[in-house]
Amino acid sequence: MLPAGIGMQEYRVSPRERLVLSTIIDLYVATGEPVSSQAVARLFENREGLSSATVRNVMAALGEAGLLDQPHTSAGRVPTPLAFRYHVAQLQQSAHSGSPAAANLSDERREQIEDSFSGITSPLQYLERTSHVLAALSSGLGIAAATSPIQQFLEHIHFSRLSAGRVLAVLVTRAGAVQDRLLALDRDLSYDDLELAARYLNENFRGWPMERIRTEVTRRIEAERAEYQQRLRALEDLCRQGALASDPATPTIYVEGMANLLAGELDRERLRQMLIALEAKQQLVELLNAYVDARQHDVRVIVGLEGQSIPSMPELVLIGAPARIGAENMGTVAVIAPTRMQYREMMQAVSYIARLSDRVFSERLAADRITDVPPQ
Fold first, then answer.
1. CB 251 within 8 Å of CB 145
2. SUPFAM superfamilies, alphabetically (predicted)?
3. CATH class of the 104-149+250-367 domain in this structure
């Protein structure tokens, strides 16, 4: 059997076998039940050369080739991971050749997707919304990961004194992300100190990028230390302990739809182990990086997930693509779902959402460079 992601060039599947296999996959995806030769034959009863006996022989050959499996002696056949890989390869070949079978998303589905992204104003918002949209479309996991730390702009910050020398910083970005940071200080700050520091940041730096705020706060502390000694001393302590710091070691990644997979018919214990592994964001990023190349332009489909940090899951499929803004790679959008899925529609949806990011933001780039630059 071929490893995950490899095509079927070594296998010679005849046109008749291809037709029967495609029909079996469609029936299995629709019903979730093993497919009998009689069910296939009924669909071809008016087609010469595809009698029940012929269909049985074709299905037997497909079984010997590792493309069909028979769960029980008296049951019908189900497609194997290898069959789904072959099916995906056929869909991709049709897409590249411009075949009518590779029709794009329906107008209704495109409008549904575009409506889901209305009101988006930042890449982080786009990625977060993507995880929700893909989870809903796939009934699986919707995943969106930023390639690198995305510049974040301050909307509001609040400090809460927890105990002597311990402060909780709650930072809200313009993208709507809320970040909690526990700060351990060398000295105790009063409620008034924290209120003054928060007010100073909110009144002077709302809408500024975090990196620029840290630089400007340092400059002002040196220039205005004598005039604002008490206020800026507290602010200096808070900033030194990371109140406005970004953590490049923590990937920005959004995952939605864990319950979708748990509600399915997969191996519950192995799935539980995999989901626990994927809760560690770094492992999920490694999984995406292993399968989705930022340089690729087409959607990538991997049938059968496996990796050093996760249990092997041949019953799961990853469909992913890089999302770009112009020539810059913004991140990766992906779906992890059971093999029993509508491949053509999900491949098209992932591809469309990945390309939609460029359309949403490219027209705003010139304006953003002007409006988001803080005053000098």
1. yes
2. GAF domain-like, Winged helix' DNA-binding domain
3. alpha beta
